[in-house]
């Protein structure tokens, strides 16, 4: 069973059409949840860290929220340059290691 | 300020060979982590080092090894390469490791023939 599940796998939106990406997690002892953006052939670019349920963070057209079971990345009035794969990752207690556990990502395409 | 740097950018090896990948963290960061990313998947955790000590290890065979130097740079070594080792290898640095934000480099694309 995957510990971090992202949905949808792919999403195509028109420019200006707002939407949300979901990241659900089944790990216990969450120590942090991270959102990254990745362009093809490049390393992930850090966006947000969330540490506790109820926390929210914003950056330009992006807003990340966290509950006890999932996180949402809300994209408001997206532009074509927002097209990328968005990755969610967690660090949790009991995993035996301090590395990030990633989901498979959501491939987002914004059409002009 | 320079971000995380990795070398080489691309690498082609044949099965059975050995490879060494290098990473320099952001200035001031003392922790380095290594990840493997195959096409269409999220990165998978290989190792984390903090202050030259191994802090954690993912589910990878003993063919994978790493070390961190006094200047906090790091090397990832992979022995006896298999076709399945073909992937993008990513290095990330952070102030302290653990749950601190990790910042990624551009990666090294390894192709095993």
Describe the structure.
The complex is a heterodimer of chains A (112) and B (113). Chain A has strands spanning 4-7, 10-14, 19-25, 30-38, 45-50, 56-59, 62-66, 70-75, 84-92, 101-102, 106-111. Chain A is an all-beta fold and 112 residues long. Chain A has a single domain, classed as Immunoglobulin-like, CATH 2.60.40. In chain A, strands 2, 4, 5, 9, 10 and 11 form a 6-stranded mixed beta sheet that branches. The radius of gyration of chain A is 14 Å and the shape is globular. The model of chain A has no long low-confidence stretch (mean pLDDT 94). With 113 residues, chain B is mostly beta strands. Chain B has one domain (5-112): Immunoglobulins (Immunoglobulin-like), CATH 2.60.40. Chain B is 0% helix and 50% strand. Chain B has strands at 5-7, 10-13, 19-24, 31-37, 44-50, 53-57, 64-68, 74-78, 87-94, 103-104, 108-112. The radius of gyration of chain B is 13 Å and the shape is globular. In chain B, 41% of the residues are buried. The mean pLDDT of chain B is 95.
- Total beta strand runs of chain B: 11
Q: How much strand content do the residues of chain A show?
A: over 45%
Number of domains of chain A: 1
What is the architecture of chain A at the second tier of CATH?
A: Sandwich
User: Element order, helices and strands of chain A?
Assistant: EEEEEEEEEEE
> CATH H level of chain B: which superfamily?
Immunoglobulins
Name the overall outline of chain B. globular
Low-pLDDT parts of chain B are none
Major β-sheet annotation of chain A = 6 strands, mixed
User: In percent, how helical is the residue content of chain A?
Assistant: under 10%
- Give helix % range of chain B: under 10%
Portion in beta strands of chain B: over 45%
Structural Rg of chain A: 14 Å
Gross morphology of chain A is globular
- Helix-strand makeup class of chain B: mainly beta
State the name of the first-level CATH class of chain B. Answer: Mainly Beta
The total count of helices of chain B amounts to 0
CATH topology of chain A, by name, is: Immunoglobulin-like
């Amino acid at each position: 069973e995957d510990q971090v599940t992202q949905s949808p796998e792919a999403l195509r939106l028109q420019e200006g059409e707002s939407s949300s990406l979901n990241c659900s997690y089944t790990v216990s002892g969450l120590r942090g949840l991270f959102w990254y953006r990745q362009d093809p052939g490049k390393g992930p670019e850090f966006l947000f860290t969330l540490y506790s349920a109820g926390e929210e963070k914003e950056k330009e057209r992006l807003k990340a929220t966290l509950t006890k079971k999932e996180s949402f990345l809300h994209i408001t009035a997206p532009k074509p340059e927002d097209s990328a794969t968005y990755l969610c990752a967690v660090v949790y207690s009991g995993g035996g290691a301090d590395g990030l556990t990633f989901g498979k990502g959501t491939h987002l395409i914004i059409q002009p | 300020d320079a971000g995380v740097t990795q070398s080489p950018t691309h690498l082609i090896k044949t099965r059975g060979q050995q490879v060494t990948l290098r990473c320099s963290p952001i200035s001031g960061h003392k922790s380095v982590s290594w990840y493997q990313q195959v096409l269409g998947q999220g990165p998978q955790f290989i190792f984390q080092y903090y202050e030259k000590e191994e802090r954690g290890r993912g589910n990878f065979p003993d063919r994978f090894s790493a070390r961190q130097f006094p200047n906090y740079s790091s090397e990832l070594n992979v022995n006896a390469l298999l076709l399945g080792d073909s992937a993008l290898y990513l290095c990330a640095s952070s102030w302290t490791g653990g749950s601190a934000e990790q910042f990624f480099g551009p990666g090294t694309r390894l192709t095993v023939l």
